[in-house]
UniProtKB/TrEMBL annotation, chain B:
Gene3D superfamilies: Hemerythrin-like. SUPFAM superfamilies: Hemerythrin-like. It comes from the Bacteria. InterPro entries: Hemerythrin (IPR050669), Hemerythrin-like (IPR012312), Hemerythrin-like_sf (IPR035938), Hemerythrin_metal-bd (IPR012827). This is Hemerythrin. The keyword Mitochondrion does not apply.
Length: 154, 139
């Protein structure tokens, strides 16, 4: 996988977080993992189709999810209900959309499949066993991950 | 859901409408997040949704008319974003008509609406303001 993929998602996440929740996420160490999976509490899966094909997974701890939705809404949140998970899914969708706009500058034309939200651990798909890149992002309200599994489809 | 000065684009009519939209969506969010019995809130939810649907469409139309007036170069991209949002709202309205005003579905709609509005006003609409400024703020 190319560095442009990771940089596009990192930049998009940074911009959206700064704008929406006034937080500037910092990059952690990139890891190569065997399969796309995550044991954080809330996972948002985005499908990518077009010149690149694959899956992007956003994974958040529970307390960070609740804090983000609290910042957005100005209201206390005590559980990841439909309101919170939908807000989280939309935020990931926006980050994904902006990342694809950045990738278009590198001549990749892609689209996003609407987000699917998983509350609880995201288990790997038993058939797909491709390597994925996991980018940890550090913020004052917690650490979240973006896992990227993309293949060229040109 | 707080209105912030950083969301202002510097065009009075649009800024006023955005602030009103934030007020309405914030009110809607408070109603759907209230802990009172759902049945006692449902009329207020319907009423706010009806108002918002009309207000959003009027606002989009006025914003697009303004963009046309100033020859805004990204008008087509912007119209597409508005159309896709309207389509999303219409899909939910259809679901509510078919399934009734189910609380879980309304919560889902509320989370999405809030996030979309903050992002659209805080990012995409800012570019209109930047364009106006680049033309010396005279249009």
């Amino acid at each position: 996988m190319k560095v442009e993929y990771v940089n596009s998602f990192y930049k998009a996440a940074k911009d959206v977080f700064q704008l929406m929740v006034d937080i500037d996420p910092q990059r952690g160490d990139l890891k190569l993992i065997e399969n796309i999976s995550n044991d954080k509490d809330a996972n948002v899966e985005l499908g990518v189709i077009g010149d690149l094909k694959g899956t992007i997974l956003f994974s958040f701890p529970k307390n960070m999810t609740l804090e983000m939705v609290k910042i957005l809404s100005g209201m206390e949140m005590d559980k990841i209900d439909n309101f919170a998970s939908s807000a989280l899914g939309e935020m990931a969708n926006i980050i994904g959309g902006n990342a694809l706009t950045l990738l278009a500058k590198h001549h990749y034309t892609c689209d996003i499949v609407p987000p699917q939200i998983f509350i609880g651990e995201y288990k790997p798909h038993p058939i797909d066993s491709d390597k994925a890149l996991l980018l940890p992002l550090l913020t004052p309200i917690g650490e979240f991950d973006i896992t990227i599994l993309l293949k060229e489809n040109k | 859901m707080m209105w912030k000065d950083k969301y202002k684009i510097g065009v009075e009519l649009i800024d006023e409408q955005h602030e009103e939209l934030f007020r309405r969506v914030s009110e809607f969010t408070k109603i759907i997040r209230s802990e009172e019995d759902w049945n006692s809130r449902i009329d207020k939810v319907k009423e706010t949704m009806d108002f918002m649907k009309d207000y959003v469409i009027d606002h989009f139309n006025e914003e697009e008319a303004y963009q046309a007036k100033i020859n805004y170069p990204e008008i087509e991209i912007h119209k597409k974003a508005h159309a896709s949002f309207k389509e999303g709202v219409d899909n939910y309205i259809k679901i509510f008509e078919e399934e009734g005003f189910n609380e879980d579905r309304i919560q889902e709609f509320g989370g999405k609406l809030m996030t979309w509005l903050i992002m659209h006003v805080g990012n995409m609409d800012q570019k209109i303001g930047e364009y106006v400024k680049s033309k010396g703020g005279q249009i």
